[in-house]
Design brief:
Elements: H1 3-24, H2 35-75, H3 80-85, H4 87-92, H5 104-120, H6 123-131, H7 137-147, H8 153-162, H9 169-176, H10 179-197, H11 215-218, H12 220-235, H13 248-260, H14 263-268, H15 274-283, H16 292-299, H17 306-314, H18 322-327, E1 330-333, E2 336-339, H19 347-378, H20 381-392, H21 399-410, H22 415-422, H23 438-461, H24 466-474, H25 479-507, H26 511-516, H27 524-533, H28 538-562
Antiparallel strand pairs: 1-2
Length: 571
């Protein structure tokens, strides 16, 4: 019977079954549902059970592996601290030309921002962040935080001398607060007093301060400065604006408003404390003024340096490429991207050194590990197991102990140099420099990572049938030809697995290079650890880590293109 005839018979049978199914209806399961629906339901239940089994591991990986990587990537571009700490200053600097010091208005914005930041104790954090870009800004911010309280004191004294009501918190609340907030605050205060009189706990927070509806149109800077004052003391000090005199910068803002606002606007104000405001407006022009740039420069000379203002302006965006640029020995300036000064260009050199030394260590591990794995795989089982224990023995010793042992061995008065001098191979006054350099790093890390090369090689070599080599020899191949043409190609997957393990481990090592590498033998991972634990420049550390991750993935892709990841085996 031909294939065509067989196919026709099969199609006819299928058509007959479909016709019968249409007449008799779908096949039913024992529970009365169609069989196909029951099978799909059982399959979904099976998948859900499988998902429930792996859910704890999946959640663990998300929390401990995926989330930290995304957090690292975010930290490498996140820069919201400037715009959050100095919001008014950032806006005021948008049109600054960087040719001269900013205007009085910009310094006034800085005064309001800095007063609030100092009260919230966050100005030093911003100083530390900007100090990564321009050295000295951190000390400028610390000194200014101690002296900002005095800014506006001259205006405060003059307003109080004019009318003592300006010293009364209740007068300020009546002028600035929304009527419904005043009522809510009074009700809250009454309940707090009642609880206190009854010796009952009262944990309810004071209602959040709200400005009066039209005061911002009449006294815009004053309203903004007073809102910062009221909100800050409520949140940071758990005090009430009804009981605290405003900051001196609020008086400075009032003085500036009374001078800058049109007289008609002040005269048209008829809200609470209108007489008090109009009285001050009539004489404010005669008050003693404060030279804001001079005041800030007197606090710290850094405010007179254009570099300080350029740094604030350049890094005012909530997201920045500055960390990645710094990781590539570049810098972000108002003029654009520029190279770092030559004496600060270290990261590209460290990346290059890390790659070269990691490849060197990987190559040495292949040269040393291949003969050992070959020997282990071809010895009798009892002997190979005993020798394999010796290969695994370093894993039972602390990495720190092993590295410290190499410090003893490699130093100029150490065991290796003493042995070479005793054998007459090296003169006593010409001992080898084997530590605190790249040589020490390569030796110590090759010893530490060698088992990671031997084990994949051994596991793959054990799966190569000895009969293949014997068959090659029986066909006339020499020992060398049989090895290179038959045995070695089958061991390449083990070499690939070992190389990937050793390279990826070595590229991220930092303990061993730190202890034996000295200045010339450290890796990029040592700088990452330094920025995380010492300089606390987590953004730069995240950028360096991200670049290292991208570099490893790129090399992994290149390996896959050249060798093929499918050829990697662990036995």
């Amino acid at each position: 019977m031909t294939d065509a005839a067989t196919g026709n018979i099969g199609r006819a049978a299928a058509d007959a079954r479909r016709a019968e199914a249409e007449q008799t209806g779908p096949v039913m399961a024992a529970d009365g549902r169609p069989l196909k629906q029951s099978l799909n339901r059982a399959l979904r239940a099976q998948k859900l059970r499988a998902l429930a089994l792996i859910a704890p591991l999946l959640l663990f990986l998300l929390v401990t592996f995926v989330a930290p990587i995304f957090d690292m990537l975010f930290r490498s571009v996140e820069n919201q601290i400037t715009s959050e700490t100095l919001p008014r200053t950032v806006v005021a600097l948008e049109d600054w030309d960087a040719q001269d010091l900013p205007s009085q208005d910009t310094f006034a914005a800085l005064a309001y921002d800095f007063m609030e930041a100092a009260e919230r104790r966050i100005h030093t954090r911003l100083g530390s962040r900007l100090n990564y870009e321009t050295t000295g800004i951190s000390s400028t911010f610390r000194r200014s935080g101690r002296g900002i309280d005095d800014l506006g004191e001259t205006q405060a004294e003059q307003f109080i001398d004019l009318n003592p009501q300006w010293e009364d918190p209740a007068a300020w609340v009546a002028l600035m607060a929304a009527p419904d907030w005043i009522a809510a605050q009074a009700d809250w205060a009454a309940r707090a007093d009642a609880a206190d009189a009854a010796d009952r706990p009262f944990d309810e927070a004071e209602p959040a301060f709200r400005l009066a509806g039209g005061i911002a149109a009449t006294l815009p800077e004053t309203a903004d400065a007073y809102r910062s004052f009221a909100t800050t003391i409520q949140q940071e000090d758990e005090d009430s604006p009804t009981a605290e005199e405003p900051w001196n910068t609020v008086y400075l803002a009032l003085y500036r408003d009374l001078l800058r606002q049109p007289a008609a606007t002040i005269a048209a104000y008829d809200g609470p404390q209108a007489a008090l405001v109009q009285e001050a407006a009539g004489v404010a022009a005669g008050f003693e003024a404060t030279d804001l740039p001079a005041f800030f420069i007197d606090m710290d000379d850094g405010w007179g340096d254009l570099k300080t203002w350029e740094t604030i302006q350049t890094f005012s965006d909530p997201y920045t490429a500055g960390y990645f640029l710094a990781a590539l020995d570049l810098q972000l300036t108002p003029q654009g991207i520029e190279m770092q000064p030559e004496e600060q260009q270290i990261y590209l050199m460290l990346f290059w050194r890390t790659i070269v030394l990691s490849l060197t260590i990987m190559g040495l591990c292949v040269l040393l590990g291949y003969p050992i794995a070959y020997l282990l795989s071809n010895l009798p089982m009892r002997t190979s197991n005993l020798l394999l224990i010796l290969v695994l023995l370093p894993f039972w010793t602390s990495l720190l102990v092993r590295t410290s042992a190499w410090k003893v061995l490699l130093q100029q008065q150490g065991v290796i140099n003493d042995t070479l001098v005793w054998l007459g191979l090296v003169a006593d006054d010409a001992r080898l420099a084997l530590i605190n350099n790249q040589v020490g790093t390569v030796i110590a890390m090759t010893h530490i990572l060698l088992p990671f090369m031997i084990l994949p090689l051994y596991s793959v070599m054990k799966t190569i049938p000895p009969s293949y080599v014997r068959a090659a020899k029986s066909l006339g191949a020499t020992n060398s030809t049989a090895f290179w043409r038959v045995y070695f190609p089958q061991s390449v997957p083990g070499i690939g697995a070992g190389c990937i393990l050793v390279f990826i481990l070595s590229i991220g090592y930092y303990i061993t290079p730190e202890l034996v590498g000295g200045r010339t033998g450290i890796f990029i991972s040592n700088r990452i650890a330094f920025h995380i634990s010492d300089s606390l420049n987590w953004g730069l550390a995240a950028a360096l880590g991200s670049i290292l991750l991208i570099l490893v993935l790129a090399l992994y892709w290149l390996y896959d293109r050249l060798v093929g990841i499918d050829n990697v085996k662990l036995g």
